[in-house]
């Protein structure tokens, strides 16, 4: 299976480079990368802030965003004041981050992120669609792109050696920043081990999608794969549904094709790999 996915990735990625990329693939990739940028900023920003800020009881929450290309992680107090600003270079290297612990008000842009984050949190606390499982946390990721406001909710493992897909949600808002719609992106939670007791270190993974509106790989899948790439070393990851097969590889390239086309190509590859029969030998 690994060989099949590698061959298909080569076949589909390079022809697409010479043409206009598929709209769906492009949109999902960009959204997933934007989520990754936000969550990576939060991961590193949290470590830095907690190390230097000692009044833990005053912390009300955090969020991250791009400020004219600069990744920023913002921590705010329970009285809704910014109490920590961590700015990162483009490579997100914590060693090059700049920390500012001066208390201040939100900027207008930060107010937008804060508002949808808090409105999402209120919905999460009062809507039974949201589930929390043992040894996991729900991460809130506000995202504003192309003037569209969303909040993604991801499930993160609080234990090592696991990568979690699923139990994720998308919250959208109206023009008054009120929750308009809440939906699940996966039907369940999928836990994949990085090192499996029976097969050792895994090199790839796969799961299926059954929700009708999310038949392709999701932006949250891409975000998770990018966040954990340095731990997993996975060469590729595949999602399968009745309509689409999506392949994300370690070079951050996404291939999406119809499931029927994937099956046809797989059959052809396997057929071509079969050894040719030796010519019949005649008795002398």
What does this structure look like?
The chain is α+β, with helices and mostly antiparallel strands. It has one domain. Helix 2 crosses helix 4. The longest helix has 30 residues. The two termini are 44 Å apart. The N terminus and C terminus are likely disordered.
Question: Topology, pairings included?
Answer:
Layout: H1 2-17, H2 23-52, E1 59-67, E2 70-77, E3 82-87, E4 98-100, H3 108-126, E5 136-145, E6 148-157, E7 162-166, E8 169-173, E9 179-184, E10 189-193, E11 195-196, E12 200-201, E13 204-208, H4 219-232, E14 236-240, E15 244-249, E16 254-258, H5 259-273
List keywords for this structure.
284 residues, alpha+beta, 4-stranded antiparallel beta sheet, 32% strand, disordered N terminus, disordered C terminus
Distance between the termini: 44 Å
**Order of strands across the biggest sheet?**
1-2-3-4
Count the helices. How many?
5
Oligomeric composition of the shown chains: single chain
Report helical residue fraction: 25-40%
The count of domains is 1
Determine Rg (CA atoms, Å).
22 Å
Q: Give me the secondary-structure category.
A: alpha+beta
Order of helices and strands: HHEEEEHEEEEEEEEEHEEEH
**Global geometry:** globular
Main beta sheet, described? 4 strands, antiparallel
Strand content: 25-35%
Gist?
The protein has 284 residues and is an alpha+beta fold.
